[in-house]
TrEMBL record:
The protein's Enzyme Commission number: 6.3.4.5
Pathway(s) where this gene product acts: Amino-acid biosynthesis; L-arginine biosynthesis; L-arginine from L-ornithine and carbamoyl phosphate: step 2/3
Subunit comment: Homotetramer.
Domain spans labelled Arginosuccinate synthase C-terminal: 176-392
Amino acids binding ATP: 10-18, 119
Protein name: Argininosuccinate synthase
Residues that hold L-aspartate according to the record: 121, 125-126
Stored PANTHER family: ARGININOSUCCINATE SYNTHASE
Predominant location: cytoplasm
A single MF term (Gene Ontology): ATP binding
Species for this entry: Bifidobacterium callitrichos
Binding site for L-citrulline: 89, 125, 129, 177, 261, 273
Family: Belongs to the argininosuccinate synthase family. Type 1 subfamily.
Amino acid sequence: MADNNRLVLAYSGGLDTSVAISYLKERTGKDVVAVSLDVGQGGESLETIKERALACGAVEAYVVDARDEFANEYCMKALKANAMYEGVYPLVSAISRPLISKHLVRAAHQFGADTISHGCTGKGNDQVRFEVSIASIDPTLKAISPIRDLALTRDVEIAFAKEHKLPITQTEKSPYSIDQNVWGRAIETGFLEDPWNGPTKDCYSYTDDPAFPPVEDEVVIEFKQGIPVKIDGRDVTPLQAIEEMNRRAGAQGIGRIDLIEDRLVGIKSRELYEAPGAVALITAHQELENCCLEREQHRIKRDIDKRWGELVYDAQWFSPATQSLNAFIEDTQKYVSGEIRMTLHGGRAVVTGRRSDSSLYDYNLATYDSGDSFDSKSSNGFIDIYGLPSRVAAARDVKFGNGIEVPSNTVE
């Protein structure tokens, strides 16, 4: 049963959420349960973060290594959907929020809390993603943001930490707002808010400068039903596949993205992203689909992929619409098995080879050499029937004097 005296806080271990523990207790009268997930963001250990949460006043600390769960159940769904918001951005933050929300709700049930708190501002996408996800799992839970709802600004944080002698060492604030996990890294704010300003090299962490690449790197990725299972012949888990491609594609500067993005809340924002592993894996997966999906199925799936990315970006991971699209996408992956060879070099992942036992590419149909099994005589009747509607419409246009004007041949 929920306890009116407890709330759950999505806890990162940084200044904002460390101060929020005591601040929320003081402002709401509720004891705080801190929840921290490792989704491949790097940095401090979960044990260190747990100890800090308790030292800052949390009554409980719920920590979990969710890297495999994130890779298996979230990143792989995004890979199967070739998810690229606005055609270029792998959904770095959007796919982690539903997972974090699931664990926030689980912790609320485990520790009897009736409220969940997150550290989002009032103008970003993540506040929507957290609160819609939480409501989709358990609509009885309330949500609150200390920054948005309780005026917890950075100057207030610093003063509050000093006044309450919280065990927090304030470090120099990054000029950027950064969110990262194993699928990628998002960088915004600071001087990047002027869209004329070019990125500087200190913006990047997951990728090296593509202008000065090492020697090209050839990689062979094997997929089974849309999931990478081997790299260069070695068995890999989804997490291992992402991590290895982050390292190898990142060394070549692959996956740097700079765009003006349409946020869910209605404003445009300038965003930088680094997603070397995601970009390389999606490139390989798309090319394997080119081989293995039937033409009309493939056309429909490209539309579905775009819509899936938009829905997930727009906080609809748990919605009925997304679940229905998941069913279609999963069905399309039945025959998406085989190998893709790619060359990684200088910011580009270029596919150079494909092979699959379930490919619909038929050499004997495609070749122009001897052994061609395609009956070219069939094309005459095909063109006649296929062009019939156009011919009938053209005859009507001529009848009413609206035919397409053809320039006369004149010799000067």
